């Protein structure tokens, strides 16, 4: 499901049980949501064209819609850490990191295709490392 900043904020309020908006400030929710986008870009180079969310209608472009909720997961984790509820913070952050690593693997394996706002496929700019074996005239892929 495609989510806007407003939807992400509502999801954060649900995760943190802050339905009255009296525990966490709106600015913190927004700030941590954008921090989540920066973390996603840091982990998945194909998503480096993502823009930060400013207006309530803004949507995280490039990130597949089934992963939009991860922004709320990250933001909730940071809010719990701010409130010194470390168990909840750690649980949510672990979920976020695990799902982002799964997304990265799925993109690398070609299982998830990243499309830009025009519908064009975003290619990875990271070259594949090869080691030339000049004796047998073969190439070995570096699997690090």
Give your account of this protein's structure.
The protein has 144 residues and is mainly alpha-helical. The protein has one domain (5-141). Helix content is 47%, strand content 6%. It has helices at 5-16, 26-43, 69-82, 86-108, and strands at 130-133, 138-141. The protein has a two-stranded antiparallel sheet with strand order 1-2. A hairpin with a 4-residue loop joins strand 1 and strand 2 (138-141). Helix 3 (69-82) runs antiparallel to helix 4. The model has no long low-confidence stretch (mean pLDDT 87).
Compact summary:
The protein is mainly alpha-helical and 144 residues long.
Described by its quaternary structure, the protein is single chain
Number of separate structural domains: 1
Which sequence of SSEs, written as H and E, runs from N to C? Answer: HHHHEE
Largest sheet: 2 strands, antiparallel
Strand order within the widest beta sheet: 1-2
Mean model confidence by pLDDT: 87
The shape, in one word, is globular
The counted number of beta strands is: 2
Residues in helices, as a percent range? 40-55%
Low-confidence region ranges? none
Class inferred from helices and paired strands: mainly alpha
What amount of the residues lies in strands? Answer: 5-15%
| Ends distance | 34 Å
Rg from Cα: 18 Å
Number of helices: 4
């Amino acid at each position: 499901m495609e989510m806007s900043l407003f939807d992400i904020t509502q999801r954060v309020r649900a995760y943190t049980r802050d339905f009255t908006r009296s525990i966490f400030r709106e600015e913190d929710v927004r700030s941590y949501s954008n921090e989540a986008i920066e973390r996603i870009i840091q982990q998945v180079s194909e998503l480096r064209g993502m823009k930060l969310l400013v207006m309530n209608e803004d949507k995280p472009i490039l990130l597949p819609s089934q992963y939009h909720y991860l922004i709320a997961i990250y933001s909730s984790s940071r809010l719990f850490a701010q409130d010194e509820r470390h168990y909840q913070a750690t649980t949510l952050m672990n979920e976020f990191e695990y799902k982002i690593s799964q997304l990265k693997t799925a993109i690398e394996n070609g299982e998830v295709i990243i499309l830009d706002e025009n519908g064009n496929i975003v290619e990875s700019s990271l070259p594949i490392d090869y080691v030339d074996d000049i004796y047998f005239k073969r190439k070995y892929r570096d699997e690090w």
